[in-house]
Amino acid sequence: MPSTLFARTALAALAVAGLVATASSATATPTATTPAPSAGVTVKMPTGAADLPAADHRALPDAVSADVLSRTHDVKELAPKAAAAKLADEGRKVVIDIRTVSRDWARGVAYVEAPRGHHGQPEGWIYLAHRENGRWISGLEGDREFADYVARSPLVGAAERKIMTDYARAETAPQKKPAPSTGTLAANTNGLLLPWARDYYMTLTGGPHTSGGSGQWSSLDFAGGNASGRIRSSREGTATSMCGAGGGWTRVIHPGGFSTDYYHMSNATYYNGTSIGQSALLGTIGTDLCAGGSATGAHVHWSLRTYDANYNGQYTWLNGRTIGGWTWWNGSSQYNGCATRLDVTACPGTAIYNRAS
């Protein structure tokens, strides 16, 4: 079913079921939240929502929630009411964070918490929404509406639009599908570094493993080293704090069709579609669980996402890709994989330097 049609149908179902929280008033603080009484859906409504007519204080979150539930890996096959109820039973919230509203446009972040007690990363999306013929239609990263809205929304700045338009419209070079047995992709990652300062080192604590329920082994864990625990952007781009101010999860959208996620950080700088340079400081290694999951010891959970021809808007295989001068390979099981550089093989427990090539 097309995403727009699904969103409209699901929106109606959510509204009838009363699953989405009523938004806070325009005088609420920027971090005010209102949990839904039964479904575990939480809406964050900023003071800037004064530009949002009262009638839309529910319609906008409804539209975004419907889209989110249709994309969440663990529940996407369920009807909206059943999907929201299943997540609530697991103690996992659906969070709709409305960051900016201007006339018929809105922008924000939406995410579904990762299961508590399991190491991993939540699923989350930057979204743009537009009110058309009296109805809000949302676009999450990776879908047709998002690509269209990036091109014309006044809430996307000129510099960001260039990066995000390429990103959303999948203008990276097509990649071959991975071999069934290995998932190998011979892919150019456009000079991405590992998530700390170049020519410093951290210790690899977890080889390739999954993120966000996608099934792709797209993530690495790092800790320690001589970089003072400081986590830095893998390349220049636009940064967004996915959990909001004080949360330890940041996404950076890079030129060339890739983005990177950084989770569990402490002392995270707040960004909201902000242009940053390569190696910009994002935070420090930590154990933050702003959107669920678990963490044993301070570290960063770093993940790769792509909008290439095969993986439109989701986490993607690391196997066979070169990041920070190291080529990454899956192991026999998650977390056991290693990296190679020149004649060196680095497996979990090894300190590795971050190299540009």
UniProtKB/TrEMBL annotation:
The record, for Pfam families, names:
Peptidase_M23
GO molecular function term, any single one: hydrolase activity
Q: What is its EC number?
A: 3.4.24.-
Start and end residues of each M23ase beta-sheet core domain: 220-309
Keywords attached to this Swiss-Prot or TrEMBL record, sorted alphabetically, are: Hydrolase, Signal
* InterPro entries linked: Dup_hybrid_motif, M23ase_b-sheet_dom
The source's superkingdom equals Bacteria
Signal peptide (UniProt feature, chain positions) = 1-28
Q: What class of enzyme is it?
A: hydrolase
Q: What is this protein called?
A: M23 family metallopeptidase
This chain's source organism reads: Streptomyces polyrhachis
